[in-house]
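Protocol step 4 of 6: structure prediction from sequence.
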Amino acid sequence: MEDPATIQIEKETRKKLKELRITRRETYDEILNRLMKNATNSKNKD
């Protein structure tokens, strides 16, 4: 695992990320990677 980076997000964005969790232990990194994968897959279908 690479060294983690610190990013700034709004409190509302953090709240939305929490709501997108599949499991309670899913990390923000896992959520963001899943979202990016889904976005890429959707883009490739077009």
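Step 5 (inspection) to follow. Residues 5 and 29 are 10 Å apart (CA to CA).
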